[in-house]
Amino acid sequence: MIAPGSPPAAVPGEATRRYLRALAERGREPADRTAVPPTYKRYRYAGRLVLPAREPHGDLLRGLLGVTRAEWTHRGVRLKRPAPSGGALYPIEAYVALGEPAGLYHYDAAHHALDLIRPGDHRPLLHASLTRVSAGVPDVVVVLAAVFWRNGFKYREFAYRLQCQEVGVLSAQALALGESLGLDTAVHLRFDDAACQWLLGLDPTREGVLAAFTCASGRAVPPGPPPRLPAAAEEHPPPSVVDRLPCLTALHAASAAPLPGVLPLPPPPSPGEVVRLPAARAVRVADAVPLRCSPEAGFLPRHITAETLATVLAHAAAGYPGDLPGCHDAPVTCAPHVLVRRVTGVPAGAYRYDRLTCALVAADGAGDVLAGPLRPNTRLALPEAAAVVVPVGDQTTGSATFGDRWYRLQQAEAGLVVHRAALAAAACGLTARIHSDGTNPTTDAVLGLTGPLHALSFLLLGIARPGSTVTGPLG
Ligand SMILES: Cc1cc2nc3c(=O)[nH]c(=O)nc-3n(C[C@H](O)[C@H](O)[C@H](O)COP(=O)(O)O)c2cc1C
């Protein structure tokens, strides 16, 4: 669907190029506080299922989007969720199709409950809209959708990039949680947007489906009768972003079809000095989910071990159950690089990570990341961080066959890579924070990236500097 008011993108990838141009040319825009959207979504009148304690699917949802901790800071008390979100604005909503009690539900994080959107078993229809399907109907299908204006009022067009990365972050979190809950979880980034939007009753100019995952425990309820009733209406629909965020709207519309793409060939590996890393430590990232949070006051200027860096990078570059060709071996649209600052036995510098040999290959770059256009908190934290994990990818070539969906797939994988690194860091006793401003031309030059290759995210990690925030668990 082409958004009303935006010129149609004639060529695959054209909407991506326009979007990237808009991001590159944007100045500092103040948040649009004339229309701050609600921070929650409710379907109050349709029927509610309160999730019991210690039930795998409820625990999965709480571990993804639940309101799980309160932070007391000098600015007041802030409610936080288990996975990171740009500006803690949490634009992603979760919709759940269950077989028993059969229905399509919205997860109400504030009340840890499911609100019924449509009765009936929606799993077969949602399952059929996926590009890669499993043999049987899964126990549960979860669809993640972004409320565009939820963080768009602050980040404007950049909001889509954050939203796409956040569904990748949540996918990594779902895989970690699935492992500890005994659920066989798979990530789906290629599905029929229109079918999902219609079943959920979502207007794609306000809220767009971006990812889904399926969970199977081997005890799936057999498919029930197909749904008939129309979707329930939500209480306060968010505003349309057609006029407010035209490039976001056009890119999301242009990326609606899951084209059968062919992965572009990776660039030939550049030669460079090789630093072998020790074997990665065995850690269970699932155990780190309750430990992870972004550091409030940056890092202590301390070294970490090469084994810890090896563990973080091995998790960042690991394959995962998903629907992109080859992703079971490794992420396919981006590859982790690293800026080493304080790692015992590894010279400071910029490196490409070679996952097959578990080695770092020195990048042929120049300059200093601190000379780039960084925000004050990045400028303070970066000199004391131990390392920075940077997924790198070609933002445009893949759109020749994947169409504009490529942008979404790649940003989601970038989010997945950095969140796996953050969870592995937490499992090793470290802390990590994404600093999106670190993806800039200076960082690209330091990493020796040329042509269409760019840094896609920027995850600082190290030993947390104690701050004045007090954190308390909720629920
Ligand atoms: C995609 C993404 C981008 C982010 N970008 C930034 C950033 O540019 N600067 C920053 O300080 N934090 C950034 N964050 C971290 C969030 O501010 C942080 O996750 C949020 O405040 C919630 O806190 P928590 O991570 O401790 O749960 C980002 C997080 C995500 C998921």
Précis, in short:
The protein has 475 residues and is α+β, with helices and mostly antiparallel strands.
Key features of this structure:
475 residues; alpha+beta; NADH Oxidase; seven-stranded antiparallel beta sheet; 13 helices; 22% strand; disordered N terminus
What do you see in this structure?
This protein is of the alpha+beta class and 475 residues long. Helices cover 28% and strands 22% of the residues. The protein has two domains: 14-254, NADH Oxidase; 274-471, 3-Layer(aba) Sandwich (NADH Oxidase), CATH 3.40.109.10. It has helices spanning 14-25, 56-65, 123-128, 148-155, 158-181, 193-200, 246-254, 285-288, 306-316, 376-381, 399-402, 405-427, 441-446, and strands at 48-50, 69-73, 76-80, 92-99, 102-108, 113-119, 140-147, 184-188, 207-216, 274-276, 299-300, 335-340, 349-354, 359-362, 387-394, 431-434, 453-455, 459-464, 470-473. Helix 2 (56-65) runs antiparallel to helix 5 (158-181). It is globular. The model is unreliable at 1-8 (pLDDT under 50). It binds flavin mononucleotide (FMN). Residues 80, 84-88, 162, 165-166, 169, 293-294, 377, 415, 433-437 line the site of flavin mononucleotide.
